[in-house]
Write a structure and sequence with these properties.
Largest sheet: 8 strands, antiparallel
Radius of gyration: 20 Å
Structural class: alpha+beta
Strand order of the largest sheet: 2-5-6-9-10-13-14-15
């Protein structure tokens, strides 16, 4: 009986190791995509971590997806737009703004956590950020201040903390705009509004 129990325990341990190995294999998959011409479209295989960055004369945003294995397509009209389709996925997209736009918007990262929204499109400009999706309420956003560049690039923490928020709306397009105002800690305040100018939310980039 002890031998049987021993074999059962050994089997459970082996199964645990197999599942652990599969998990580590998935999270260590990475693929970088250098974009030399626009418009651009990627329909290939999506692995756990995918990066897309501009390799043209004009500087553009760079994008890093994690949990990207449910994404089906990425399209970019130019250096400052991205659209992606996802099948019931939970990807996280970290967008590093280009130097000019990032300086103008006082922003280093724009992060979007998806919770099974099927399509997302983003446009970055000197005026702000436009997000379009049929399921805006399924997205979580974080505006990461450019005051944190050193913290996040020089000996960066393994799991940096970001302040996320949702935008509870049925609108298909929302716009993020810098207000020019600051909080007591000198972080920039933003507003989120609809295409017709209706204010939805006030947020701060931390």
């Amino acid at each position: 009986m002890k031998r049987v129990i021993g074999y059962i325990i050994l089997g459970i341990v082996l199964l645990g190791l197999i599942f652990t190995g599969v998990h580590f294999y998935k999270i260590n998959q990475f693929k970088a995509n250098s974009i030399k011409k626009y418009p651009y479209q990627y329909n290939g295989k999506f692995v756990y971590t995918m990066s897309f960055f501009s390799d043209t004369q004009e500087e553009g945003e760079s994008y890093i997806f994690t949990k990207a294995n449910k994404i089906e397509q990425v399209k970019m009209k130019n250096e400052h737009t991205i659209a992606y389709k996802e099948k019931r996925g939970k990807s996280i997209l970290e967008t590093t703004l280009d130097d000019k736009i990032g300086t103008q918007l006082e922003l280093y990262l724009f992060i979007v956590k998806n919770n099974k929204a099927s399509d997302v499109k983003m446009d970055f400009s000197m005026e702000g950020i436009r997000v379009t999706s049929n399921q805006i309420a399924n997205l979580n956003f974080s505006l990461v201040s450019n005051k944190r560049i050193n913290e996040l690039t020089v000996n960066p923490p393994k799991n940096p903390k970001y302040a996320y928020f949702q935008v509870d709306t049925d609108e298909k397009t929302i716009i993020f705009k810098l207000t020019g105002k600051r909080d007591k800690q000198n972080y920039a305040k933003w507003i989120v509004f609809t295409e017709d100018g209706t204010l939805i939310k006030k947020v701060t980039a931390y």
